[in-house]
């Protein structure tokens, strides 16, 4: 995209955070990002913010709110009804004002900062927006809520915790992309939601803070001597109690040391060894006077406070948990210790701080990496990457509910290997041989609980997760099971459903156990076709059957399966090209089941063998009729080889004629491969067989004499009747174009 077009059509981004104010957590992070972007010129990316903006530092300490100093009003019916209406309205709207809905509708990308109601993400997805989620809690939001409210109404706290964990799981499931500051900060979420994150694109954007401004303060603690300082909430997961215990132990041995705490919280306690500075709206002067800072978290995300201290050139002591490990690696003048060894870590900091230059390297690292401008640049690069990905290739997700290698799997392998021009194809399938082959040819593949063995509910959930992970423009299902799951899985409005029909027969007995089941499935297919934007059939017969049985109203595009012919056509050595019956080698490659009508082939071969005993028949494959077919060959007294499963390539190399007398075939790969390799073919006059081999090579299997004669006089099929995989995928690409769209260059 050129600069001029970018300016005319910028990427529109909305960052949603309920409160935007100085401090920590999502509130302070979003405040810093907003301020930095306001100073950054980016005509190709238009970033706006939704939330209440304050300039006063956010005090999220977890302290109980003081009781209001007013007389409690007497309840009234009007007041109770008003409260109920407010709660119902909030529940229905999920905290979404009409203004927020309009802002989301106008955006291309919506970034949700911190824990929020998942219904906001559902709304954004329903409007076709890219939805990103960035958590900010050092642990799951529900667990943090429980820690901050320990001792209060335990039953209510437990219920709220469970609801918040359930909602946070939904946030991860609904997000198209998840953003963390570093890998270490993601650890607790990977442990809890690893299955979801495994299929969700994840990006890492290092945090940043503005350069601290030192202001004159009136009425500080009156003691300018440098202190070892803790800043933050007075709660257990911030390590407040660990700091007090370490300070008391060290002060007993070193009375000259000064320890201070700055903040507030429900776990505050008095200590003779530690001076509590209390809450300060601007902690910068106290940090600037400190000897060094201690970050003693029991659980850590990627705190902003150490970055502010680094900007002031202060040394730091971290506990080795979560994002602390990543911060310590990026800030050279810092110490890392286990939470249980905090006193030893502080002692090491005391030794290092004897050098007045300790901490200066942190200031240099801040300038290079952790300014808010650097953070803004990283976010802009992420938005541009998203725009570039969407502009370079369109995305399609193929749903394939089978794991073994069969006809449909072959179609998928050939199509993804050839590629659809202008499209990036990702395949969702169960783990197995198909997935392994796709990976071997570098095709993007997602595996999971999908297919008949997984069940409809699990399959639907897996499809929804894959759609969220790939953000496709087209969801293309193969086989009836995938078609039905796709039809009843909610997709973004921008995604269009396509289907390729590989298996339908005019004879209900081919694919259904009873006529009642056939009628029920016909009704299901008629209904699901209402939700599909396009349909592909692998043969004209398949298309005609779809229209006849399912009453498909929309156009059905016929795109036959494609095969690559060998570079050198079959040129048998002298004396081996059998053009008459003696010594003829006949091969059947199919499942040994009733619909393949191998019994008719054996009976026709018996007629041929009576006149030409040198002819041979190999029936390769396995199936429920094996014993019955072996017995039939013995009864007729003809030598038929039943080798079981074989390598098709090797089997065809040793054959002259391929015979396929099925009740129905849509677009048989066995016949396609036989034609591509120059073999002669005999096929039943059903389905798409005539399209492949020509009607003159088709027979009625019930006419054993005619079938025997066709086997004896079989001829090759011109290879120009075939479609290549490249031709096939080019046609699929044309089918994907919305009506009226010009071909893309």
Automatic annotation (TrEMBL):
Glycosyltransferase subfamily 4-like N-terminal domain: residues covered: 405-564
Protein keywords: Glycosyltransferase, Transferase
Ranges of residues in domain Glycosyl transferase family: 586-711
Keyword Glycosyltransferase: yes
Superkingdom field: Bacteria
Record PANTHER family: D-INOSITOL 3-PHOSPHATE GLYCOSYLTRANSFERASE (PTHR12526:SF510), GLYCOSYLTRANSFERASE (PTHR12526)
Protein name in the entry: D-inositol 3-phosphate glycosyltransferase
Organism this protein belongs to: Microbacterium panaciterrae
């Amino acid at each position: 995209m050129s600069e001029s077009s970018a300016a005319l059509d910028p990427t529109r981004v909305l960052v949603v955070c309920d409160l935007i104010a100085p401090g920590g957590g999502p509130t302070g992070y979003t405040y810093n990002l907003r301020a930095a972007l306001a100073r950054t010129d980016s005509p190709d990316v238009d970033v706006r913010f939704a939330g209440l903006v304050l300039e006063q530092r956010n005090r999220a300490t977890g302290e109980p709110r003081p009781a209001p100093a007013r007389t409690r009003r007497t309840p009234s019916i009007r007041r109770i009804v008003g409260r109920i209406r407010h709660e119902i309205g909030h529940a229905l709207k999920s905290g979404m004002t009409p203004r927020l809905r309009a802002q989301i509708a106008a955006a291309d990308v919506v970034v949700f900062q911190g824990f929020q109601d998942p219904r906001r993400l559902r709304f954004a997805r329903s409007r076709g927006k890219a939805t990103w989620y960035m958590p900010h809690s050092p642990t799951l939001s529900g667990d943090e809520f429980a820690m901050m409210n320990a001792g209060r109404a335990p039953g209510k706290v437990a219920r709220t915790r469970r609801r918040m964990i359930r909602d946070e799981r939904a946030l991860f499931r609904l997000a198209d992309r998840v953003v963390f500051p570093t890998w270490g900060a993601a650890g607790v979420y990977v442990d809890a939601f690893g299955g979801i994150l495994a299929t969700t694109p994840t990006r890492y954007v290092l945090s940043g803070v503005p350069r601290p401004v030192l202001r004159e303060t009136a009425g500080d603690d009156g003691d300018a001597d440098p202190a070892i300082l803790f800043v933050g909430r007075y709660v257990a997961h911030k390590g407040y109690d660990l700091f007090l215990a370490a300070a008391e132990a060290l002060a007993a041995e070193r009375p000259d040391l000064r320890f201070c705490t700055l903040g507030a919280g429900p776990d505050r306690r008095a200590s003779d060894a530690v001076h509590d500075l209390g809450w300060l709206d601007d902690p910068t002067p106290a940090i600037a006077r400190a000897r060094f800072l201690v970050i003693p978290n029991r659980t850590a995300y990627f705190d902003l406070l150490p970055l502010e201290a680094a900007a002031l050139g202060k040394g730091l002591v971290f506990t080795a948990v979560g994002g602390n490990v990543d911060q310590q690696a990026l800030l050279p003048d810092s110490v890392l210790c286990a939470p249980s060894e905090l006193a030893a870590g502080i002692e090491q900091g005391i030794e290092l701080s004897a050098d007045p230059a300790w901490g200066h390297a942190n200031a240099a690292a801040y300038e290079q990496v952790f300014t808010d401008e650097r953070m803004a640049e990283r976010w802009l690069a992420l938005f541009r990457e998203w725009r570039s990905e969407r502009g370079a290739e369109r995305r399609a997700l193929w749903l394939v509910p089978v794991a073994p290698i069969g006809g449909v799997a072959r179609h998928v392998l050939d199509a993804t290997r050839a590629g659809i021009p202008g499209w990036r194809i990702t395949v969702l399938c169960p783990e197995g041989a198909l997935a392994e082959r796709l990976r071997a040819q570098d095709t993007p593949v997602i595996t999971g609980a999908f297919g008949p063995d997984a069940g409809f509910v699990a399959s639907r959930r897996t499809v929804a997760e894959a759609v969220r992970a790939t953000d496709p423009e087209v969801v293309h299902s193969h086989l009836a099971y995938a078609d039905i799951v796709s039809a009843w899985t909610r997709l973004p409005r921008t995604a269009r459903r396509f289907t390729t029909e590989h298996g339908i027969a005019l004879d209900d007995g081919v694919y259904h156990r009873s006529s009642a089941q056939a009628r029920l499935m016909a009704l299901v297919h008629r209904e699901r076709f209402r939700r599909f934007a396009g349909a592909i059939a692998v043969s004209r017969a398949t298309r005609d059957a779809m229209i006849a049985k399912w009453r498909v109203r929309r156009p059905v595009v016929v795109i036959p399966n494609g095969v690559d012919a060998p570079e050198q056509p079959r040129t048998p050595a002298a004396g081996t090209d059998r053009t008459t019956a003696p010594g003829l080698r006949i091969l059947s490659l199919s499942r040994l089941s009733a619909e393949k009508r191998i019994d008719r082939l054996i009976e026709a071969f018996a007629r041929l063998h009576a006149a030409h005993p040198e002819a041979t028949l190999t029936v390769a494959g396995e199936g429920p009729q094996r014993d019955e077919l072996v017995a039939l060959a013995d009864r007729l007294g003809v030598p038929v080889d039943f080798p079981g499963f074989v390598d098709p390539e090797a089997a065809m190399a040793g054959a002259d004629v391929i015979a396929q007398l099925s009740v129905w075939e849509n677009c048989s790969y066995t016949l396609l491969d036989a034609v591509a390799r120059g073999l002669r073919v005999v096929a039943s006059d059903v389905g798409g067989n005539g399209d492949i081999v020509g009607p003159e090579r088709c027979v009625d299997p019930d006419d054993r004499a005619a079938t025997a004669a066709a086997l004896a006089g079989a001829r090759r099929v011109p290879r120009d009747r075939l479609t290549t995989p490249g031709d096939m995928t080019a046609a699929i690409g044309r089918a994907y174009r919305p009506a009226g769209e010009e071909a893309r260059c």
